[in-house]
Amino acid sequence: MHNEPLAFRMRPETIDEVIGQEHVIGNNTPLYRMIKNGHVPSLLLYGEPGIGKTSLAYAIAGTSKLPFIALNATVAGKKDVEDVVKEARMTGKVLLFLDEIHRFNKLQQDTLLPHVESGSIVLIGATTENPFHDVNPAIRSRCGEIVQLKRLQPKDLLELLERTLKDEKKGLGKETIEITTEQLEKISEGVNGDARKALTFLESLLAASDEEDGKIIVEDALLTQLLTRISLLGDKKGSHHFNLLSALQKSVRGSDVDAALYYLAQLLEIGDLTAVTRRMLVMSYEDIGLAAPDVGSRVLAATDAAQRLGMPEARIPLATAIIEMCLASKSNSAYKAIDAATKTLHEKPTGEIPMHLRDTHYSGSAALGHGGYVYPHATPVGTFGGWTDQQYLPDSLVHSKFYTPVEAGEETRMAAIHQRLQSFKGKKNPR
């Protein structure tokens, strides 16, 4: 009788047992050959949940025979890292698998990274987040390769399920199970490329099936019922959940009310109200933006109400906000403008702030050359308020343009103001 979950028991023990990921660990890949020849490089494994990051790390450890330690960066502390360092000093080399590596804090890094650089610790990190965005550059620079794993194909999952049913040591080979190839194919196609989910589903399916004369018999009706359930709900933190959030945003952006409500209903059934309300608030500024600037405050009110009410009542203010966003005028100009400014900040030297914009609220500022600022409110321009022609950007960026108006909804009025202010430049007395 096994106590561990089936998905845990069926982890590959060597790289020859890994299913799928031929582009990474196939027999002819450089990584496979390196490990077989006794060299294990530090790696970053990147990909969706359930596609084999942890399994691959365990398989590499089993093949290399290196002392193996597994930590999760979300709960590991400095002492845990220090223990890894001590082990490396005692044994000469340690293979450290660090899950959720994007959560690795600076204190942990300072303790560990010199030993990774010296080679006494081989680091295999795993993350579901884009390592170029979310993993610290200090870690990335010490990992020889960033390996992106792919979602497993139905044929890979079918192979895994068949192997599990035959394996007498770790799997279900000692059980008498009546399940057809067609039923296994349905499981393989219904779990969205997730090996862990495939094995967990098989385990649950067998537990729910009837047993006759010591034989477990899998019925099509039960299989279909369970598959429909996981297809609808998915995993709260899995890839299907993020696909639903993406589909919701793209449906609102495309002004399709019915599709947006359909995906909202699925997300609310999953039960992650926080993720839904957060995404809706982002959408109100990213996709509606300046075309209907009041929508953001109304979506905030709706999401706050939803959080206070909880389900099932939360669906009402959220549906109201979704419909309003679908039918609102849309502009992404503000979102694109801040990204353009950020891109310039990273790609060009930081410009010097003009002297007339610098702080003058202290004695001695004039001696530093600060001053000369002209107060715009002192020169009214029609009903706009005040405006004066003076430079605000650094000299090196004086001709940069980040904001491009979109003539939609309320932003049409703003675009006209923006264009008129641009026409004033170079004029001493604009009217």
Structural notes for this entry:
With about 425 residues, the chain is of the alpha/beta class. The termini are far apart. It folds into four domains: about 20-150, Rossmann fold (3-Layer(aba) Sandwich), CATH 3.40.50; about 155-235, Helicase, Ruva Protein, domain 3, CATH 1.10.8; about 240-325, Zinc Finger, Delta Prime, domain 3, CATH 1.20.272.10; about 345-425, DNA polymerase III clamp loader subunits, C-terminal domain (post-AAA+ oligomerization domain-like, Orthogonal Bundle). The protein has helices at about 5-10, 20-25, 30-35, 55-65, 80-90, 105-120, 130-135, 135-140, 155-165, 180-190, 195-210, 220-235, 240-255, 255-270, 275-290, 295-310, 315-325, 335-345, 410-425, and strands at about 45, 70, 95-100, 120-125, 145-150, 175-180, 210, 215, 380, 385. Strand 2, helix 5 (about 80-90) and strand 3 (about 95-100) form a beta-alpha-beta unit. The chain contains 19 helices and ten strands.
List the helices and strands and how they pair.
Blueprint: H1 6-9, H2 22-25, H3 30-36, E1 43-46, H4 53-64, E2 68-72, H5 78-91, E3 94-99, H6 106-118, E4 121-127, H7 131-134, H8 137-142, E5 145-148, H9 154-166, E6 177-178, H10 181-190, H11 195-208, E7 210-212, E8 215-217, H12 220-233, H13 239-253, H14 257-270, H15 273-288, H16 294-309, H17 315-327, H18 333-347, E9 380-381, E10 385-386, H19 411-424
Parallel strand pairs: 1-4, 1-5, 2-3, 3-4, 6-8
Antiparallel strand pairs: 7-8, 9-10
